[in-house]
Structures are given as C-alpha cells and as structure tokens.
Request: fold
Amino acid sequence: MRIELVKRPQQSALYSALSPFIALALTLIAGAIMFSLLGKNPLDALYYYFVDPLREMWSLHELAIKAAPLILIAVGLSICFLSNNWNIGAEGQFIIGAITGSILPVMYPDLQSWIILPLMLIMGVIGGAAYGFIPALLKTRFNTNEILTSLMLVYVAQLFLDWLVRGPWRNPQGMNFPETRNFHQYAILPEIWPSMGRANWGFVFALVAALVAWFMLSRMLKGFEVKVLGQSPRAGRFGGFSASRMVIFAFLVSGGLAGLAGISEVSGAIGQLRPTISPGYGFAAIIVAFLGRLNPLGIIAAGLVLALSYLGGEAAQISIGVSDKVVRAFQGMLLFFVLGCDTLIHYRVRFVGSTAHKAEVSHGNA
Amino acid sequence: MVKTKDYENARKYAGNSGKRITSMKKTILSLAVAAAALSLGTMSAEAKVKACWIYVGPIGDFGYSYQHHQGLLEVQKELGDQVETAYLESVPEGADAERAIERFARSGCNIIFTTSFGFMDATNKVAGKFPEVKFEHATGYKREHPNVATYNSKFHEGRYVQGVIAAKMSKTGVAGYIASFPIPEVVLGINAFMLGAQTVNPDFKVKVVWANTWFDAGKEADAAKALIDQGVDIITQHTDSTAPMQVATERGIKAFGQATDMIKFGPQTQLTAIVDDWGPYYVKRVKAVIDGTWEQHDVWDGMKEGNVVMAPYTNMPDDVKKLAEETEAKIKSGEFNPYTGPITKQDGTEWLKPGEVADNGTLLGLNFYVKGVDDKLPQ
Amino acid sequence: MGMLEAVLMTIATAATPLLIAAVGELVSERAGVLNLGVEGMMVMGAVTGFGVALTTGSPWLGIFAAIAVGALFSLLFAFLTLTLVTNQVATGLALTLLGLGLSGMLGESFVGLPGVKLTNIDIPFLSDIPLIGRLIFGQDPVFYLSILLTAGVAWFLFRSRVGLTLRSVGDNHGSAHALGINVILIRYLAVMFGGACAGLAGAYLSLVYTPQWVENMTAGRGWIALALVVFASWRPWRVLAGAYLFGAVTIGQLHAQALGIGVPSQLLSSLPYLATVVVLVLISRNRRMTMVNTPASLGRPFVPDR
Reply:
C-alpha cells in the first residue's frame, strides 16, 4: 500500500480550518508519549508548556517580546515566498539592521535628543533593506540562486558584528568585554505599558506591519502582482508585471522589515550590541511564515504560538525539570505535524494498493 | 509551615497585582514585598529555600556550565531537605536572559545564580523589581541593588602553578596556549602562566592561538595541532572541550586540563588540571539565605577558599611535583600573589616595582601582556 | 613528521567531515531536493556513532550505525517533503531543530566519557616516504573512504545511466515523469544517501576528529557543507577542492596566529562565504554553465499528475 496525493481543484476550506487543530492534537499525543517515556506526568508537562505562560500579565508581555521579531521578519518573508523569491538570509538582514541602526548611539553617544530613536529605526530599515538588496541584485543581474547567496551573507553579517563589538565598537568603559556601550535613554525603544510588563513598541510595529501587508496582499493591485508572479511568471509577464522589479521589491521589503526587527530588538530588549543578538530569529521566522501559511494574519498567530513554545519550554524546565533538549525536540515535532497536516488543504490523501495504482495509470492523464 | 503559606500568598498578590490600576497596584505590591521580606527574614529551618541557576551553555558541555551544575548538585547533597533547586540551561545572553531570570524570581526562587558575564545587565534589572530575592552574578562587576552580589574565581592562581610545571617539563622551552576570547580573565591567565614559567626559565616562550570560541571540540583540536606543529611540547587551554587533551595524547606530549579533571581523556598526558569548584561557595551562600544572614558582597575567591582546585599532579618526576606542590601551598596560604613585582610589560616598560602587588581593579580589566608572551593581543 | 606534512594531515582531517556531508547533500540536490537538515542529521550520526562504539567497543560498528541512523533520520524529511509535499526549506530547518534536541537527549549519559578512536591505517614502508608518505598511506580509514566516495559519486552522476536518470529528475521532474521515471522513488533514495553521508560525517567527528560526545558538537559544520555544494557548483571534485580549501583557510589562520601574525580572524573566517557568493555569481553569469550544472528543479515540489 502506498500513499498518493490528489490535488484538489481548490483549497479545502474545511481542512484550512481543521488542519491546525489536527496538528495540535497529533503534537499533544506525540508529546504526551515522549514525556511519559521520560518519566514525567504528560498532563503536567503539557500544562506547563501551553497554559502556564499565559496565566500572568508579565508573561504575556514576554510573549509579545519574543513574538515581535518573529512576526516582523515572517511578514516580510511571506511577501518574498508568495512571489517565489527565496530569501533565507533574514538573519543577516536582522543583524545588519541592528548594526546600522546602532551607529548613532554607539559612535555619537553625545547626540541626545528625541530625534535619535526615529532616526535609528529608519537607519535600521535602510540597513536591512540594503543587505537584502544584494541577493536581489545578484539574482536579477546574474541569475544567481538567491537561496544560497542570502544564506552565505548571514555568516558574513554575523562575523562582521563579531568583529565590530570586539574591535572598533567595543565599550571603552566595558573592561574589554565584547559589547558596545549601553544605549542612552533617547536610544531606547520605550515600553508600551511599563507598569504591566516590559513589552516594547516592537510588538506594535509587528502588528502594524502584518495588517499593512495583509491589506496589500488581499486588497491592492500590488498584492495581486505578488501572487501572480509567484504562481506563474509567464502569466505575470503577459499581465505587464516585471518579474525582476518584483524580486527587488520583495527583498527590499523583507530585508527592511528584518532590519526593523533587528534595531527594535537591540534598542528595545537588549540595550547594546553584543556578539550574538539573535537566537536565530531569522531562521525561526521562516518556520513562522509557513506555520502562518504565508498569510500575514496567520503569521501573527503562528509567531505567538512559536514564542509560546519557547516560554513554555522554560516553564516546563523550571517546574518539572524537562531539559532544554526535550524542548527543542518537541518544537521540531510540532513543526513537522503542522507542515504535514497542511498538505490536507491542497491535496486529498489516498491510500492505494499497487494493483489499483496500475489501473489508474492505464487510464492516462485526466 | 504557616510562615511559608503567608509567603506564598504574598507572592501571589505580587504576581496578580499587574491587573489592577497602578496606584492600587503600588500599595499592594509594597505590602506584598514587605510581607515577603518579613517572612523571608524570619524563615525557619522547616521552610525550604529555593535556589536557582541559569547557565549559558548546556550542562552537557563538560566544561563551564557543567561545573556550575556540579555546584548545584553539591548544594543538593549538602543541604538536602532544606533546599529545593532548579536550573535553566542554554539561556542565550540578550532578551531571553531577562525573561528567564524574571520567571525564576516569580516562581518562588529565593536566591538566583546567574552564571555568565552576559547576564549582568539583565540580572541587575530584574533584581530592582524583586528586592526580596537574592541575586548572585558570576564574573560581573555591576551591583546596582542591595540584593545583587557578584562572585568570581582566581583561576589565574592555578595557571601560575601550571606555568612553573610547564617550564620544568618542556624540552623545547615553548608552550602552546589555546585561548578563547581576549577578555581580561583570559589575558590574566596567560600572563600568570608566563610569570610562573619565568621563575624556572626566564627565556620561556608562550605561543597563543585565539580560537574565538568557548566550545568547539574540532576547532580546539585544530588549534592544538597547529601549536604542536610549530614546536610546542606542552599545551594548555582556556577553552572548555577535552579535544586538546586528546590531541596531545595522540602526539605524545603533555597538557593541562581545564575546568574539570580531564585525566580520563589523557591518563598519560595530563600534568594537572584547574578544577572550577563552585560547590563550596554555592553551599555557603544558600546556607546564608536559609539562616537569614545573606549580604551583598563582591568576592574573588581562589585557592585559599577552595574555589580553585588543582587536580592531582601526574605524569611528572618527583622534583617537579614537589616544586608544584610548594608553589600551590604558597599561593593557598595567602603568602604569595602571582601578580607581585617586579613585572615588566610586553613592550618593555615597567608595570610593578619589586614587591609591589597589583590591585584587583587593574587585574579585572587587564588588557596587556607581560614580557615574554609571543603574541600580539587582539585589540 | 615534518612541519608541512603535519599541516597537510591536519587540513585533511578538518576537510574530511565537510567533504563527506557535502557530497551526500550534492547527490540529494542533484535529484532536486534541498535538504537544509544536514546539521541535524550529522549530529544524530555523531551521537549514534559515539554511543554504539562505546557500548560495543567497536568503532566500525559505530560508523555503520551512524550511517544507518543518518539515512533513517533523513527518511522523515523525505516522507514529509516528497510524499506530503511540504516545503523543503521549512522542513529541513525543522529537521535540524529535531536532530539537535534529540541527540542531546540521547547523549546525556555519554558526556564526559572518553570515546573509542578509529585507529589510523599505517602501511609499512610506504608511510615512511618523506612528505607524502603519511599523508597518502598513513591516514584514518574514513579519509580514504571520503576520496573513494567523491570518485564514486562523480562516476555515478556523470558516467552511469542511473546517474543520468537522477540528474534528469533534478533538472526537470515533469519531463522525467513523462518519460516513465519514478521521480519520487529516485528522490527518496537520493535523500537517504545524503542522510547516510551526513551520518558518516557526524561519526567522523565523534570517533576520529575528537573522540568524545558533547552537545551540538557539529558546531555549524552541516551548514558549511551546504555552502560547499553551491561553491562547487554541484560538482563532486570541486566539492573536494572546496572542502580542502576551507580546511586550509581554517588551519592556516591558526598557524598564522601561532606564528604571531595578527590578522582579524573574523575577516579570514568570512572569506569562504564571500568566496562562495563570488563563485555563484561567476557561474551563474554564464548561462550555459548554469544550465549544465544547476539542478533546475532544486527545491520545487513534485506531485505526479494524472
């Protein structure tokens, strides 16, 4: 017996709605099995994983902090992926955005005025967009595979940041530790509601970006252009759309949003540059983009779910001593199930015996 | 038991207060904090103290985080029923650290050890919000609140002993040093090693390779091979993996272990190892919380206090062993500080006059080599 | 052992795991499947190899077990991306995540134990030839295997019928299917070959390079292997050249330091990545070369129409 997929004529609305729940159920079952094998009470473990972090206000704020960069980056990536541009270098664009955004508070710490923060954010966007422009340019000019160039540039960005904070940008008062000076008060992204928790405006940026992107994709001609060129470049050309202009557009948008995420994270949550400023947000956002099915509104939900899995992992580690490795393995499983279940939206799954298969082949192409 | 319950309730109020309006919240919060402080101060032996640790790496690194975790296990063993422990491993430095520390503070930890330099600002931030919880930050220098203490170990005392041994054992007169990052602690170790070696052989050389990692077995092995190929016949390291020890074994030269006793990885190779023993300190500090005698401090303990322990001296002739033991005893008794003049800087200028002892402030920010180190310090 | 000879030996050791993992990934990509889970499969191989060798006392059993586990682990990826047509990029990333977590769990009891080392082959007399003796006749067995593997894959892809079929699947799965080729089956096998190679590369780390187990011991080598495949424009012998170049740069940088020559190490470390971008640009500028070398269907999902 084998599994066969039959493409649905159109997306199944039923499975569109059901698939996240099927995936969740499967994850819960698999997770329960895994936790029992480890000798932990599965109900306790799942409770700490999925419910405990949502019980308190401060923790919800932390959820927003963790989700903000994931959502911001993933929204940009969704435009890229929908238009069939494979930017997997968002991590690098995030880092470069953080660096260019930090130029003012690090190199000119005496410039202290309210104008600094907006300038930093703008410079962060520009830096990220410029770094995203490189693979786009190489793709349009030389037909270079953007998956690989954008990935390579991640390492270059990481090493560049490492060199900066250990060398020219090292804090003169920092006892030689590899970090820049702390940002002054005008360079800090404020918290939304300080008495409740420490979530900063980065989360608001993320929500706004998602809404704007959603509006563009579903209500504007540009969104139509993105999708047409993504599904069929030929059809797009007949429609008068330029594929290479779209490449540039997609990379500029996603790079810019990643850069904004970078500078928001640095000025909001960290307050200085360090050798590592991202625990892999740029890569995790790829997963978020797919979990959210490349729909900006779905991405908000997906970003929150992935952020919850980080927070829940910590809660489980503290409360019942589930180790950090289990948490990662659990995240991997969750993603597999979600990705697998989404197949149901586009395809009908059939289990066929080998004889039935032969019969079908002889019927030829339908 | 009543006391504990009061404390629990107080904490619950503190946690829920975020949902109320600000002015009211403040009143309740201060009440809760007062109640918590009160119950903490008078906490009797029947109440369990919760001690929590945050590690930057996995406890399976068999190096830095592993040793801190050994300290946690010792606390469990020594204090038994009086204490409850928890830990978080592989916590990235940055935004995640602050959340992890705050989650600990809210989950009822009475004392929290944050064991990496990069947790410094996060520790101080959270400490400001939870005055009733004690915070202990390893290797940092900021203590912005009365409930933050800092602690560190003088590992360079062990390096000095290693230098003495290396100069005695080496035939080529050159030792290889695998270093992680050019931060003061590492520079301090390289210099101490050099100073120790110079007491035996004034012309001794140290070659330094910066691996730019704390932990990458492959890269550390490569660095060890590169050094050996360039003629060193003793390897020491300030990175965490056991790979250099294994390479030294393969090539038939001697090496020193780092952070843990690595004798299993080089039974015929390891001369000694500097063992980070955080156990005694952790037991002391958790006990202070139990007894209600905890106070803020900044300690830099070494051999004397039992934080820096030398693994058994092996694979060396008796006279070298004797000299090593004497050197160790001299430092341990407090009669000798490795950073005692005369010491000349690498560029030939005088740093310490004969008999002058370097002050801790200079040492903790050390950014230059002493004479004889065969390397240019990355700036 | 002379200095130059010793340096070359070190470079060979550094290059071998990269070469093996990259050649495996190359076959998978030639069949049109981009598997970003190399790091995860590699680390699973490392923990399996170490554990089996430690319990049985035989490094060879460890190696075989690592190969088997690497292939099995990649099967998970193959099932999702090929049978359920999930996105290859996202699935590969998830595979890496799962591999790093799972290997940490499995390896918890191995931490701090010295492993079993696979001993070097030493052909008498021949290995005493100056300069090249040890290099050619005194290496570890997997080193020879890695060269044979490269040669084998080069022959298979460009000289054998099945290799031609595999490449046609990667170039245009639509027409390959129309010609009656079982696209999915070929891709399953190619992905599993890639997994087996990644497993072997991981075992090389934990049994030859540094015989020990520590969490995340692959330390990003899986990603470098991915870069090498592109750097080599999907050609096996160029992968070999790339892996050795990469090894030489890494080792050379350490030697420069030991000699007291100060160059920012970050600059040197970033050279291989920048070089890859440049090479990519150069090969893709020339349309004909691109057509010849790049698997055109790379990363595209395939569902047989009927």
